[in-house]
Specification:
By secondary structure, this protein is α+β, with helices and mostly antiparallel strands. It contains six helices and five strands, in the order H-E-H-E-E-E-H-H-H-E-H.
Length: about 160
């Protein structure tokens, strides 16, 4: 396991330079405009300034990713393998993970027991109505037919 990690690390070091510079989050955040734009993806810092005009999503997508950890934004888009490979030429260093701002949790609150029970009971009501409504309609149709025939035979 350790050998695999060392191989992966050495391959990455060869691809991106054996000694990568470590930046603080604040240092990276200063590079946040069209003439100087840096982003952070997976703990790595990229100077994407030369790529702003060529980015398929437009320069605004990259500029909005500056001044924050853009890993989630990058992964949500679902970039191709060639896009990931292309990033290597814009690599300038790594970010000191201790300087990254705390992530804000955007998870919705978990439902309480009361709402869970109400969801179960409303599901039960819907299932019952799915059976009862057709039966009531069928019963009404038979009743109309029965009373309709009876009234015709009374008229004759």
């Amino acid at each position: 396991m350790a050998a695999k990690y060392l191989i992966e690390c050495s391959v990455e070091e060869i691809a991106m330079g054996s000694k990568s510079k470590i930046f603080t989050f604040d240092e990276v955040a200063k590079h946040n405009h069209k003439k100087d734009c840096w982003i952070i993806v997976n703990g790595k810092v990229y100077d994407v300034t030369p790529f702003l005009e060529d980015h398929p999503g437009g320069d605004e997508a990259l500029l909005s990713a500056a001044e924050k950890d853009a890993t989630t934004d990058f992964e949500d888009v679902g970039h191709s393998d060639s896009a990931v490979e292309m990033m290597e030429k814009y690599f300038v260093g790594e970010v000191d993970s201790t300087t990254l701002p705390a992530k804000v949790s955007s998870n919705p609150p978990r439902p309480t027991q009361a709402s869970a029970y109400s969801n179960e009971s409303s599901g039960f009501v819907v299932k019952m109505l799915q059976y009862l409504v057709p039966l009531l309609i069928l019963g009404f149709a038979f009743a109309l037919q029965y009373f309709g025939k009876k009234s015709k035979s009374d008229e004759s």
